[in-house]
Amino acid sequence: MKRTPPKDTGEESGGTAPGGIQALDAALSVLRVLRSFDGPATLSDIAREAGMPPSKVHRYLASFIHAGLAVQKERSGRYDLGREAAELGVAAISRNNFVVRASDELEELAATTGQAALLAVWSHNGPTVVRMERGPHLTTTSIGLGSTFPLLDSATGRVFLSYLPSPQLAGRLQNELERAASVGVSWPDLNPNPESVEALTTKIRRERIAYVDGRYIPGLSAISSAITNWQGEIEVAVTLFGTHRDLLQPDSPARGALIDFAARHSIVPPAQLGNSSGVPER
Amino acid sequence: MKRTPPKDTGEESGGTAPGGIQALDAALSVLRVLRSFDGPATLSDIAREAGMPPSKVHRYLASFIHAGLAVQKERSGRYDLGREAAELGVAAISRNNFVVRASDELEELAATTGQAALLAVWSHNGPTVVRMERGPHLTTTSIGLGSTFPLLDSATGRVFLSYLPSPQLAGRLQNELERAASVGVSWPDLNPNPESVEALTTKIRRERIAYVDGRYIPGLSAISSAITNWQGEIEVAVTLFGTHRDLLQPDSPARGALIDFAARHSIVPPAQLGNSSGVPER
DNA sequence: GAAATTGATTGCATAATACGCAATAAGAAA
DNA sequence: TTTCTTATTGCGTATTATGCAATCAATTTC
């Protein structure tokens, strides 16, 4: 009796793990499906979404229930995440440090993109560099640990501009807008007024990438992306910079790698918890 | 060649699930072991704790890594919980009605009290921040999503100290008591010994408010209260914090608002169902 | 209320793979 | 550089996960 061949549909969990256990891979894809529902789900819903026969899914769910990761509601018969899922997750949250985890892989990001890379967090002085990898080509730069950036005139600053709640930004943004207006500065993609700032930040959040069309530091190009938490707030900005303007091209490999890096280090919010849009109210 | 018979040692995960999948049961017991470490662990540590051969555990970990539930640190080779575990946890928390309802009104609490506000749930690493509102005045803080707190030296920790059953607290409390005693630390309202802890927790449960007389973080004051379920067990701690020490005054409006908030989000246990005092047996 | 339909759960034969064990590779210590 | 320790991988086979059908349970229809 032949087993059905593996489905060729693009599975987000990406099929089987080399050196892993196939049954476990399949089971974990079921757990992921269970997680992706907004709330309790029927066996047939789960099986349909997982692309598996209900009897197979039922056995996986039996084990998840036994382990406390899932529960079956008595009245409706629906399955939901169990207490152990919360405990596992909160343990993971308590061990998650966005800066440390991004730092662990920053060297590799710099190496594969061929750019210098930095991490910045928000501080009293604005976006502040907390970690930096020089990468293969960077020779000299004044940017180093502790460097800060303006909000409007740097890729990193624009990322914070796009994700921080207004109260945190207010004074600093106001100062920069006034300064730019008083010396008649504007950018191809930004005029120093609130409407233009709003349009730019909407674009940055949509595209998950920021840059400055023009130059912050002569001879340097930079792109930046946000690592966000489950409230949709920015935790760290990841920035690539180097001397080649092709870094700014929409199809540059580094750009894709950066967006991917930031996404891999972000924790996506579920629909219900707080900000359903994933973006702080502005 | 016979497979080794199942270990007769009392496995907390309770062996195999009727109607489940044995490999999955075993793998999930490994995941539970990984969770139980305070941080990254070596393969041999995990295998020893799980009572399994390292090669078997390695294969399970390969699948967990593939699914994003675990990561292996490049430098140390140690294994830790991954991003998918965190996202699973956030999803599971978002199905906890106590957390969801408190989250829905957290922003308002922060606004009306003028303080930053946070929600913390218990994890293996202690009280862990799962939700946070910065409020009108907080600009920078090292407290963020995923932050954990000590039991004795934080308002949030003291709330959990007052409501969690002793077995859950035992190791962590013991460590903190020993550490405080060894460096000669004490607080105006707490000496590092069990009797003093008992008196403090009784007071906290009576008043439904906890704070630290002294400072956990210099310049920050915090008060915390428990949201409890129908069995009188703590589900979430709600904490207000800010830079003004008047937050700690017994007549401060924020204090009253916090106690009211927690009470409104708690379920009063029915008097006829056991614990009429609403306190878990200690 | 009975019959039909739908969804959940379980039994069973067997194809598939999880497993133990040993070998190999990689990393750390001397 | 050598030795020791830990992590990872190969492989034969014993074990079990699986597909399919049957059974059970719940819901819907008449």
Brief overview:
2 copies of one chain form a homodimer. With 282 residues, chain A is an alpha+beta fold.
Shape summary of chain A: elongated
Distance between the termini of chain A: 60 Å
Greatest interface:
A-B, 70 and 70 residues
Counted beta strands of chain A: 7
State the assembly state of the protein chains: homodimer
Low-pLDDT ranges of chain A: 4-13, 272-282
Number of domains of chain A: 2
Largest sheet of chain A: 5 strands, antiparallel
Write out the CATH superfamily name of the largest domain in chain A. GAF domain
What is the helix fraction of residues of chain A, given as a range? Answer: 40-55%
Instruction: Kindly provide the radius of gyration of chain A, computed on alpha-carbon positions and rounded to a whole number of angstroms.
Output: 23 Å
Looking at the overall shape, the CATH architecture of the largest domain in chain A is 2-Layer Sandwich
Structural class computed from helices and strand pairing of chain A: alpha+beta
Can you list the strand order of the major beta sheet of chain A? Answer: 4-3-7-6-5
Total count of helical runs of at least 4 residues of chain A: 10
Task: Say what the CATH topology of the largest domain in chain A is.
Answer: Beta-Lactamase
Please, what is the average pLDDT of chain A?
A: 86
Strand content of chain A: 5-15%
Strand-and-helix sequence of chain A, N→C? HHHEEHHHEEHHHEEEH
The CATH class of the largest domain in chain A, by name, is Alpha Beta
